[in-house]
């Protein structure tokens, strides 16, 4: 029962208000992509034990998608930020590294 | 034998006797008793039988850890199985029955299992029930079903008459446990200004401390507890709940409390249970510790009890476990029991201590009280079958001479295990403490919350501090720091003080005698309820089980309803010994919520009956109801399946509705269909991405059937798209797909194409929609008046907006039946009015409402697909012959790249065809088409399956569609469909076109 703060409406939302949308920052592969690239886009997921970037929707609230950087083991939430962010923002990466010096970052 | 004693019992009121029955026999107890104390007080020592061997079982414990005294409570609609007698408060006319006994507790047939015990070793399920395979169905399964489960399941047709509720609570600090540690922590936290909630699972505050005696801040512990509770109750920032167990601790400070509101006052009108859903910034687990049994031969005979339980019953309820009690211990606490009993004038045979010498304060007092101390000794056997009659005492090793003693109760203490469950639920880690022989919470590895900081702290005995003075100091600090972490202050008040006691270290003794042979080890019980013995765990280790989790499942150790509260540590110590490794290397099994079982009804709360889930009603719902509609649930909606008339079966009604629609005109409530507006400068571009066909070129006022695919290429939804205006489209979706598709659109708009100027709105509930279909449909719409609906003014697949019957309306000329057909949409609040208007206008034309089944059959007659029938998440549009609806011009759309994958273009995909049975029969739903030969498992090869199959009243025979290997290339071929009637008969069907009715579409185009 996580609590994530929706960056759009500012509400600290209980997990029951939210819908999970899997891994964040995937790059859409489409027509013209190789089979390998398309497979990776559709199916390859990091599923890390540790720092993870996720998509969440404030489904029973403002309805907006947002992204969360959190730790799947310690349940620490490093940041929630706009769903319209192609890469993990520098300040989020910095915040994670401050807490998790051993984190290798996103590939 | 157990009995009531005079001048004791701090919790009972002897002026208020209560009647109760056990196995139909009447007994008397007192207000304040638990069912267990009342039974013991009435001299009932045998209360049930064990699961596997049906051994006689007595009460072992005095609290939640009790493994044996489980009863069926109440009867009829009040029957509740597996209720722990030790936590069931006595009330007048309580009715309890023993479990797992047949035909009776005293004489039980299942006891023969004991005689064959050596054939029922660890893992016997896995070993025995494998071969021969045929025996499973006729021999093993009936046997397991007959003997499985302890309690009796309530009548399946019965209904729980009680009510239950959920309650939500937000607090700074949640203290779980209302013993002296919990009260101390709560006081410290409240003094720091935090909002505090305290949960105590029992009806009384103070836990076990009043039984153990001692002084706190110079007061008798009982008086200190009363003062502390009064203090806390007087504070505005403190909420106190008794009879409320902290059931579980979850992510980010979420916790569940299980309050047994009126279990002890049945019928008083209050809810029976209340589930507290709590969010706390900090959680203090002051959950105490549980005493461990000692594993000596015969430790399961009724009369063998935990030493702490023996003194609980004596002090709290004035009940003696026996007239002559033998104490056996490996630590200082056993002596307390001896002293309590002696002080109450009861006969104590002596204290058997595994340690060579006794130097603790309690031992010293016992020595002074003249109690016989037997040092360095072991209990090597228990005499008696249904109750203890004596014990055999040897040296600790079991070697040398033995002495027999007479006794009718044995109080055992194997040391204490902190209750670490709630600490561990959300990831708190444990350390093995060799000195205290216990797993204790590691404060450096706590459960962490959203900020990465600890949100659980343990207090008192739950931290592993077993002495009063250390426990109070620890609890005070826990309360202080929790308040601070939750945003309060660190109180400067001092911790409550207690005198320091001289304690002698425990001697871990995991089996007794330590060098017992196999015969004795087969009688040392670890898990009483599931009949797991020391020998079983050792056998598992010999058979190669190394993981404690695997051993648990193989032997069933700790898998009973008590979840191993007594057995786990002893069991894993035995396993560690057998594996020749230290205990921490073996580790513990995972602690999972709830701490003790909670009722399903409490979890359900108010969500039953009408409140189970919301029911969505169309604006015409009540009219259908008045017509005697036969409902069909579709998502959260109810849709009319058919409208049977007096004397008509549902099937007959469906046929009539279809024929009337085909001959005259029918009307359908289509309000549940999804309606989503897509609007904006980039809406056309977005529509082209959503649908497989081109939607941007659709003319204003025109309709087009469209398909939506997932990014995986699979067909996800379909429906008619209408171009409302230059910048807006109306997307019709399936009834079940409306919310999903709207969410899907939002996902792409918000997360991928967020710079596109598009707005979506799900207006499904804003509009009521009525389908009017049949050769006389135009006459009906004309009779409503307000729009020109002639063929020229309003051709097929067009739309107009205006007034119908004086109401603002949208009219779509679209058809799902194959007939001349319109759909009228009006604002939802006028839906009922329009329905009545259409019915009236249609009356001269023979209009009748038709339901979803008629709709399904008519569309199948036309060969139209239905999402969920023809599709199942693995079907692409190309499989359904819908290539015409897939644009080849568009550069991209959702699913395009996926459909280019090699297997999507494989010629071996099953494709949609029509199926005409040779004899007109209806192919069963879900039937498979069987081909030649068999697969690797010896099953007939399948070459296809039916997706829709109906009796067509129009054609007066069975029609079907199905996905068949190379289907479209096999027109005219006859294939076999297997039936499930067990006779091996097949239905022969000819592969044909999917459209069975009006292939040219002439009927709709008039």
UniProtKB/TrEMBL annotation, chain A:
InterPro entries: SoxD
Protein name: Sarcosine oxidase subunit delta
UniProtKB/TrEMBL annotation, chain B:
Domain annotation SoxA A3: ranges: 523-603
Domain GCVT N-terminal: 620-890
Residue span, FAD/NAD(P)-binding domain: 172-427
Keyword Oxidoreductase attributed: yes
Keyword terms: Oxidoreductase
Residue ranges constituting the Aminomethyltransferase C-terminal domain according to the UniProt record: 911-998
InterPro entries: FAD/NAD-binding_dom (IPR023753), GcvT/YgfZ/DmdA (IPR028896), GcvT_C (IPR013977), GCVT_N (IPR006222), Sarcosine_oxidase_asu (IPR006277), SoxA_A3 (IPR041117)
Protein name: Sarcosine oxidase subunit alpha family protein
């Amino acid at each position: 029962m996580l609590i994530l703060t929706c960056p759009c409406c500012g509400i600290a939302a209980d997990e029951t208000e939210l819908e999970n949308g899997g891994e964040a920052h995937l790059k859409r592969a489409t027509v013209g992509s190789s089979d390998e690239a398309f497979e990776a886009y559709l199916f390859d997921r990091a599923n890390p034990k540790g720092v993870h970037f996720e998509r969440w929707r404030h489904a029973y609230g403002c309805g907006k998608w947002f992204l969360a950087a959190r730790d799947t083991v310690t349940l620490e939430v490093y940041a929630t930020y706009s769903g319209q962010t192609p890469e993990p923002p520098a300040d989020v990466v910095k915040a994670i590294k401050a807490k998790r010096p051993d984190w290798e970052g996103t590939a | 034998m157990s009995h009531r004693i005079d001048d004791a019992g701090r919790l009972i009121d002897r002026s208020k006797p209560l009647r109760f029955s056990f196995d139909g026999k009447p007994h008397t107890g007192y207000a304040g008793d638990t069912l267990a104390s009342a039974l013991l007080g009435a001299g009932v020592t045998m209360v049930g039988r064990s699961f596997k061997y049906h051994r006689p079982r007595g009460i072992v414990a005095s609290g939640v850890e009790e493994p044996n005294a489980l009863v069926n409570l109440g009867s009829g609609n009040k029957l509740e199985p597996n209720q722990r007698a030790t936590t069931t408060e006595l009330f007048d006319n309580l009715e309890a029955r023993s479990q797992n006994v047949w035909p009776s507790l005293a004489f039980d047939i299942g006891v023969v299992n004991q005689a064959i015990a050596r054939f029922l070793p660890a893992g016997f399920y896995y070993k025995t029930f494998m071969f021969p395979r045929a025996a499973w169905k006729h021999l093993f399964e009936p046997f397991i079903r007959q003997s499985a489960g302890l309690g009796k399941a309530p009548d399946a047709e019965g209904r729980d008459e009680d009510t239950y509720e959920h309650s939500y609570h937000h607090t700074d600090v949640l203290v779980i446990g209302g013993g002296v540690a919990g009260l101390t922590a709560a006081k410290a936290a409240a003094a720091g200004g935090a909002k505090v909630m305290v949960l105590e699972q029992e009806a009384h505050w103070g836990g076990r401390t009043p039984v153990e005696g001692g002084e706190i801040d110079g007061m008798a512990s009982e008086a200190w507890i009363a003062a502390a509770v009064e203090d806390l109750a007087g504070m505005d920032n403190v909420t106190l709940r008794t009879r409320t167990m902290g059931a579980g601790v979850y992510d980010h400070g979420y916790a569940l409390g299980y309050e047994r509101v009126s279990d002890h006052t049945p019928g008083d009108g209050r809810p029976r249970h209340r589930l507290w859903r709590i969010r706390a910034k900090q959680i203090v687990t002051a959950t105490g510790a549980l005493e461990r049994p000692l594993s000596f031969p015969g430790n399961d005979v009724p009369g063998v009890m935990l030493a702490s339980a023996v003194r609980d019953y004596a002090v709290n309820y004035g009940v003696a476990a026996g007239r002559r009690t033998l104490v056996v211990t490996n630590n200082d606490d056993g002596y307390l029991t001896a002293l309590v009993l002696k002080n109450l004038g009861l006969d104590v045979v002596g204290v058997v201590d595994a340690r060579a010498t006794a130097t603790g304060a309690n031992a010293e007092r016992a020595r002074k009280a003249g109690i016989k101390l037997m040092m360095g000794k072991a209990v090597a056997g228990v005499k008696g079958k249904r109750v203890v009659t004596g014990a055999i005492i040897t040296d600790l090793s079991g070697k040398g001479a033995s002495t027999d003693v007479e006794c009718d109760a044995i109080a055992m203490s194997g040391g204490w295990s902190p209750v670490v469950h709630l600490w561990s639920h959300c990831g708190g880690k444990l350390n093995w403490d060799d000195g205290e022989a216990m797993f204790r919470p590691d404060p450096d590895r706590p459960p962490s919350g959203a900020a990465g900081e600890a949100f659980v702290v343990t207090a008192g005995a739950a931290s592993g501090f077993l002495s009063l003075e250390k426990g109070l100091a620890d609890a005070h600090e826990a309360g202080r720091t929790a308040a601070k972490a939750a945003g309060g202050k660190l109180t400067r008040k001092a911790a409550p003080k207690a005198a320091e006691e001289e304690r002698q270290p425990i001697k871990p003794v995991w089996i007794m005698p330590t060098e017992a042979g196999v015969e004795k080890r087969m009688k040392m019980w670890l898990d009483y309820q599931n009949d797991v013995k020391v020998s079983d765990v050792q056998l598992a280790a010999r058979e190669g089980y190394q993981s404690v989790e695997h051993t648990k499942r193989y032997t069933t150790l700790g898998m009973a309803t008590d979840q191993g509260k007594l057995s786990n540590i002893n069991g894993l110590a035995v396993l560690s010994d057998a594996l020749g490794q230290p205990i921490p290397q073996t580790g513990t099994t995972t602690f999972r919520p709830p701490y003790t079982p909670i009722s399903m009804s409490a979890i359900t709360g108010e969500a039953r009956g009408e409140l189970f889930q919301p029911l969505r009603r169309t604006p015409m719902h009540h009219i259908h109801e008045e017509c005697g509609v036969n409902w069909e649930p579709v998502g959260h909606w109810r849709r009319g399946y058919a409208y049977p008339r007096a004397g008509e079966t549902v099937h007959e009604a469906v046929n009539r509705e279809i024929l009337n629609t085909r001959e005259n005109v029918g009307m359908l409530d289509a309000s549940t269909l999804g309606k989503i507006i897509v609007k904006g400068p980039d809406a056309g571009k977005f529509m082209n991405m959503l649908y497989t066909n081109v939607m941007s070129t659709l003319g204003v006022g025109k309709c087009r059937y469209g398909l939506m695919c997932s990014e995986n290429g699979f067909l996800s939804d379909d429906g008619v798209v209408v171009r409302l205006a230059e910048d807006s489209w109306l997307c019709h979706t399936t009834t079940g797909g409306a919310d999903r598709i709207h969410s899907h659109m939002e996902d792409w708009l918000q997360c991928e194409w967020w710079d596109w100027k598009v707005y979506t709105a799900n207006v499904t509930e804003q509009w009521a929609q009525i389908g009017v279909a049949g050769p006389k449909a135009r006459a009906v719409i004309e009779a409503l008046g307000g729009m020109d609906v002639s063929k020229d003014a309003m051709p097929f697949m067009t739309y107009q907006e205006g007034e119908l019957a004086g109401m603002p309306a949208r009219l779509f000329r679209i058809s799902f039946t194959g007939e001349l057909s319109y759909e009228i949409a009006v604002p939802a609040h006028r839906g009922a009015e329009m329905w009545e208007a259409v019915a009236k206008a249609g009356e001269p034309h023979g209009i009748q409402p038709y339901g979803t089944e008629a709709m399904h059959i008519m569309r199948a007659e036309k060969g139209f697909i239905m999402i969920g029938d023809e599709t199942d998440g693995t079907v692409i549009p190309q499989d359904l012959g819908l290539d015409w609806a897939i644009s080849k011009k568009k550069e991209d759309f959702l699913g395009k790249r996926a459909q280019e994958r090699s297997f999507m273009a494989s010629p071996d995909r099953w494709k949609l065809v029509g199926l005409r049975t040779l004899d007109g029969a209806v192919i069963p739903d879900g039937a498979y088409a069987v081909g030649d030969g068999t697969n690797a498992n010896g099953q007939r090869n399948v070459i296809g399956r039916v997706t829709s199959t109906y009796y067509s009243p129009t054609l007066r025979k069975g029609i079907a569609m199905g996905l068949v290997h190379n289907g479209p290339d096999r027109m005219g071929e006859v294939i076999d469909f297997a039936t499930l009637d067990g006779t091996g008969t097949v239905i022969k069907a000819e592969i044909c076109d999917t459209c069975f009715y009006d292939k040219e579409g002439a009927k709709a185009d008039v």
